[in-house]
Amino acid sequence: MDETALRNLLQRVVRGTVPLDEAVARLKEAPFEQLGDMATLDTHRALRQGMPEVVLAERKTAAQVAAIARRLAAHGPLLVTRLAPEKAGVVRRAVRGSTYDPVSRTLRRGRMTIPALGPVAVCCAGTSDVPVCEEAVATLEVMGVEALRVYDVGVAGLHRLLARRHELTRARAVVVAAGMEGALPSVVGGLVGRPVIAVPTSVGYGASLGGIAALLAMLNSCSPNVTVVNIDNGFGAGFVAGLIARG
Amino acid sequence: MDETALRNLLQRVVRGTVPLDEAVARLKEAPFEQLGDMATLDTHRALRQGMPEVVLAERKTAAQVAAIARRLAAHGPLLVTRLAPEKAGVVRRAVRGSTYDPVSRTLRRGRMTIPALGPVAVCCAGTSDVPVCEEAVATLEVMGVEALRVYDVGVAGLHRLLARRHELTRARAVVVAAGMEGALPSVVGGLVGRPVIAVPTSVGYGASLGGIAALLAMLNSCSPNVTVVNIDNGFGAGFVAGLIARG
Amino acid sequence: MDETALRNLLQRVVRGTVPLDEAVARLKEAPFEQLGDMATLDTHRALRQGMPEVVLAERKTAAQVAAIARRLAAHGPLLVTRLAPEKAGVVRRAVRGSTYDPVSRTLRRGRMTIPALGPVAVCCAGTSDVPVCEEAVATLEVMGVEALRVYDVGVAGLHRLLARRHELTRARAVVVAAGMEGALPSVVGGLVGRPVIAVPTSVGYGASLGGIAALLAMLNSCSPNVTVVNIDNGFGAGFVAGLIARG
Amino acid sequence: MDETALRNLLQRVVRGTVPLDEAVARLKEAPFEQLGDMATLDTHRALRQGMPEVVLAERKTAAQVAAIARRLAAHGPLLVTRLAPEKAGVVRRAVRGSTYDPVSRTLRRGRMTIPALGPVAVCCAGTSDVPVCEEAVATLEVMGVEALRVYDVGVAGLHRLLARRHELTRARAVVVAAGMEGALPSVVGGLVGRPVIAVPTSVGYGASLGGIAALLAMLNSCSPNVTVVNIDNGFGAGFVAGLIARG
Amino acid sequence: MDETALRNLLQRVVRGTVPLDEAVARLKEAPFEQLGDMATLDTHRALRQGMPEVVLAERKTAAQVAAIARRLAAHGPLLVTRLAPEKAGVVRRAVRGSTYDPVSRTLRRGRMTIPALGPVAVCCAGTSDVPVCEEAVATLEVMGVEALRVYDVGVAGLHRLLARRHELTRARAVVVAAGMEGALPSVVGGLVGRPVIAVPTSVGYGASLGGIAALLAMLNSCSPNVTVVNIDNGFGAGFVAGLIARG
Amino acid sequence: MDETALRNLLQRVVRGTVPLDEAVARLKEAPFEQLGDMATLDTHRALRQGMPEVVLAERKTAAQVAAIARRLAAHGPLLVTRLAPEKAGVVRRAVRGSTYDPVSRTLRRGRMTIPALGPVAVCCAGTSDVPVCEEAVATLEVMGVEALRVYDVGVAGLHRLLARRHELTRARAVVVAAGMEGALPSVVGGLVGRPVIAVPTSVGYGASLGGIAALLAMLNSCSPNVTVVNIDNGFGAGFVAGLIARG
Amino acid sequence: MDETALRNLLQRVVRGTVPLDEAVARLKEAPFEQLGDMATLDTHRALRQGMPEVVLAERKTAAQVAAIARRLAAHGPLLVTRLAPEKAGVVRRAVRGSTYDPVSRTLRRGRMTIPALGPVAVCCAGTSDVPVCEEAVATLEVMGVEALRVYDVGVAGLHRLLARRHELTRARAVVVAAGMEGALPSVVGGLVGRPVIAVPTSVGYGASLGGIAALLAMLNSCSPNVTVVNIDNGFGAGFVAGLIARG
Amino acid sequence: MDETALRNLLQRVVRGTVPLDEAVARLKEAPFEQLGDMATLDTHRALRQGMPEVVLAERKTAAQVAAIARRLAAHGPLLVTRLAPEKAGVVRRAVRGSTYDPVSRTLRRGRMTIPALGPVAVCCAGTSDVPVCEEAVATLEVMGVEALRVYDVGVAGLHRLLARRHELTRARAVVVAAGMEGALPSVVGGLVGRPVIAVPTSVGYGASLGGIAALLAMLNSCSPNVTVVNIDNGFGAGFVAGLIARG
Known about the structure:
The structure is a homooctamer. Chain A contains eleven helices and nine strands.
């Protein structure tokens, strides 16, 4: 029951064409549709100040992704994640003006125009973590938030990280991706006074257990400003950092 | 080498009482002390806009906690976490004006005066999760951030959560604590457009594995605005939420 | 907003004392209260045909349990689970006519009167599993469902189980508790054509991992009529079996 | 030894053509064949009111599946699960009138005619969980039980689930499949007064651990009417729900 | 139905006092009782050539253990395992002539007289493993099998083990208990041509995970004559070794 | 130093061509060669009463396996395990008279002639476990021990197992392979008075964790005559059972 | 800020072209560049007495590896690890004089000339562990440290290891690689008075869990001179052993 | 057979009082005693250049520890580890001149006099890790190796660690203990060109899993000079570092 339907019903009660008891009964049944209605308003709000729906291309066919992407792109900025290169052509042709980046495996078009309080820094320990970082960067850019790349600053060579400290302190939030021992978020967390979103990556072998070692390390960080997302979840980290940057 | 020492050295170089080569050598050795110096400045900055050092009382004796707490309380607001009731008396007597809360097991005095953009909501699924929430609330209050308690709104009775939706949407960030299946952060994440800091709790038995089940659930949340901290880490969740609320 | 309030609002619209626009606005805001309303009706329904709220005494003080139990007992049958013997006296005195069973660690009073299609059999492998079974039996009895005890019928002595086959086949559902290797539900599942609710117990040592071994075995049962609840969750198993027995 | 053989033996004892001692000896040896006999009767009973044997095609060649399926189809309804598309042609040709569904990867023919008390609802959180749901639906349909599909109602968008509440409350049992954080069964469990059979799916990545995260969440559900089957086990969930629906 | 009852039934059929149809019906019902009967015979056989029922005292009260032990001791040799010292007095008084050993935590009386083909060697890596070994030794002695103790021969000092080689080669089977890295069974397995029953012990700390490290090591032994029992299961290892020694 | 060299050295001491001090020195250095010598004798003994070296083909090239197999086949019976079909041709051609079995993936020639006390039964729960069983059977046959196949007797249809009880009781040891919940060894262990060697198989999905569920179940068996080998280790189980059968 | 820049700054202060206050300010900002400077010196030192940067080829394209390798080879010895054979040609052509070894999957050129105190022994249990050992050997050789290969000395045939004892005792450190039960480091640790670097390998199946079983065993070694590196990390083990051998 | 016995045997062969064949036979049997003999020499060597036997007091009674300690102290320096305070008095009285340290829970007397090439640095992240460090320090001191304490230098405040860099670079080996995320060894490893022995500690809660998180992090260190010992194993770390420091 949307607002128009509700208004019509009440008018009929006023006019006497619908008895009061029947109106009570129908309104008692209605709320979920109304909730649906509000949820739709929520979606509009999300579109305005948050993020339009993002397409996770994994486990979908190129045709399915293309259809969904085209529909979403009609209403605002578009972001497709985890899009394998072999599916990208079909989707790019379906959405005129979209661009595909094979490193982050994202496809996008447009960006939101909500002002942010400042940039987000996106760091990683090694070059193998770059694809996860780039997914975060793509997410931030679609959200209209500036991303500062601070890559290849692993803890075994601290001077590399310390040399980039000014970029870190400019940021309103910091995304830090790391595989193997996952130590970088703790070190970064000690250098900045902002929230650090840690992303464990599946980079490593043997006892890295596909990223579990890094995940556990990050959850146990001695820096209290560190929170954690799922392994390789660059999108989630970028999204939360973007929300923070907007204030 | 602090600023005075540096200034003295340079003055001596200018005066010629220290040869240039020796100054070069001493300055090459100096940076760590200087870093130490800057780190101290960082501490000051943290005090001003972040959070003074927090005392984790676990694994410390009452006397140790009292000594540290007294020293810290001399410079600003004080927060002691995980303070067992049997140690609280000693510490409270050591810090005049401090108050102890046995539910959150925190002791504190004073609060910071940094303005925040808005409140933080703190939710939990069941009453057993309340101590973890109260640790987050205590942290927020010492940070000077308003905390909105939304307790006992577990997903098995959705209407309780939906009835509190207006408080959730007022918040700049939401802390959500839950044990057992850890589903609440996903549901809250779907209702708000702000970052959700999920805290798995050790509430449960058997296959809850001391909170691991809730932790895994939260890391796999289908709501992209959810990040996660360690099991029972109410302090960390409150701290990050407080940083976000300050913008 | 309950039915009376809704009716009043509509009457005022009809009378013209509330403008139609305002009524639309208030009704759009209302649904959660209405949902709350319906949820309350759900509770009534649950009371009538399901199960009144059950008190999990673990992590609650004797006084807290007593207060909650007294309130609930005013509206219908009462079941308190995981009530340690040292707390039982306080609670029993608070609820006149209640009885405490130290084996199942349950306290109860009264039973529901919803008719069931038939009994539920409750089996276990060894005597150490009996407390879990008795929790299921207590739950069934409060639900008003007959429970058939088939105890100590572990798979290492099949004849004991086969000798009780007639009881198993009489049941509308079978609860099977087992620790160690957790094999009993598969064997029972092969003997009956009804749902089997398997309860892994924490009975065992070493590689039983506190019941995880039995849990995994039950989840991998080759009998397709087996479903599983959490370790030592006799209440949950009894409750689901009771729902099934009611048809 | 079936009933005829037993009768013949006893007649020979009466006639004196078999000495009493020999009859005692043969009867002492006999019970397993008799048990075998009864088990066969069980099979007949299962066929009549339960479920004929189901073929799990995984790890079998197309030729093996075809041979087994043809034999089973001669005696009643047929269900083959986990049949890869590349094997389906051979099997479909072997069983005249059978149909193959590539989404659920099931092949079937016919359905049972045992009356049920009502329908079963089959829900899932996301579209990636649909194949598991469809396996449950196929199982229910072969059992002759009506299945109500309630798909794509994940907890991050509650209004979608609440809008389908009427279908859920019509059902005698609800199958709920979910990957990632596995929260949906708890939410559904709180909305209905019937048994919920939760199916964790392997949908997810990283810390989802191939479905273990969802599995643990479901085992720890705060809704007491939830029981759990193995990861991706749509058949098992459908089968148990079908048994419940028959009452 | 035991042999006498069966004989009586058949005699009545012959005499005509029981109609043939009734006899068929009763015999069709009988097998489980008959199976029970045979199982009873099995027990007798076990008593004769195997092992009488053993009492696991863990999780039982002293009174329960005493009652069971007295009953079993009336029929043959007695073995009680995992009997805590504080319960031992009650049980020892209940069974005249029994002896309690606080190291193995076993109580026993008598021994079986089945001849064995040779002795069993019982080895362990360190002195902390001795209680587990002594449980195996007690089991062997009650079975009437000679046990050769080869203790404190850990792999970090190979000469100790090699010096005891002659005892190992005399044995028909070898029980090897080890905690920590659990390497001893592999080394022993390479020295003897007999079955090695490996018992992981919970001796260790940290990454020994309560014996899981040793358990995994033993399951992966490069000596093909090694099989494994549960952590700390000295009884099981001794029992299987005793069965092997009997040939 | 072999026996000839030792004899020569002593003769030279007697003759006085080697001084006694030098002989002492050389003999003090010698033991490892002597140990080597004895180890060689061990090998001979193993060949005579145990098992010649077995070739594990996994991770070796066809050429490597062929070379090793040809060398070993020159000295006695040959067994090659885990030989993939695509490598089998090369090896079979290298060893005249050898036969390859694609089910067990073994290649062999000849058999040992050590007499055994009786046969070994080899059981499995389902047809997917047959390859593991056949590896055990091949091992037993090369050892010259009779193997009794008791296949497809899973616990969900007990009558199948009970009907084969006579074969089980004839055996001196029983190998039991099972995947999924791994319940069969416990049931078999309760039926026989002989050692049961349990082999968990990797048959299953989801929470079977590649055989870990079955492994844990077997380690926790309530039948005390069950010992366990590694997942899918049919060779090891057959080897130990063969050693037991030889007495 | 490197030494030249620092000298220039100070000279300008002396000359008066830079005010003292500005110099203080710039020097306070400078340390990280200075640290970078020192870190560069560290690199030089590492080159002189440690190890030049090593290229991990995994997850890099042949072209990327070739470019990095050519650049590094211009400054000293070169080591590339985990270089798949199909990428080796490109890299070998890029670095004139380099050699590729397909067993260790390393490519290298040159060696360091730092004197060592003695050799390093590199042991393994079986031939499947040889590739990991050869990676350690290649690392040692590039470091200019002599490597003694002691291969195929698994604990199931101790005489093989004992026969090589003299090589072990010559070594300044011992690298020991083993899969399956990972017992070899403990045994070697008991034979030598030098550090043992244990490398678990992923050789094994089933309960070896991809090397976790061996890893746990090594961490629990009863020989106190054993330390452990990641699964299959031959490079790390060789590197640490090389550092130790240099004294 | 020791050297005297061997010499006697050979003399009797020369004299003809022992036939040559008998001597051959006895010498073939002898080697293990000879090996035992050499092992004894090894012990002497260990005493001279390594470490006398260390007493692990855990799981031993005070009386047992006292007896062993007194015996060992008669032959050289003494180290007892993991000695609980309540047992310390008995042991200290048994060994005149011994001292007990309640922080490291070690008791010792004397120190070895083997010269070392330089000191060992012992670092830790937080004050809760100090007991583990002090166990390493005690071990080093008994070995006669200088220990440099570098405590409370966790990665969340890098300046503390960098300020201590000169001590780190003086050391021949570095022991690094850390709980929680276990990041410190990687950072230290990047600062020094010497072996780093990492000790995970059980300091932490929730997802630290009793030190497993730190252990995994350390095994995955991106600094190649890091090796790892068991959780809380300060003794092992100190011992290996001491061996390295001796060159």
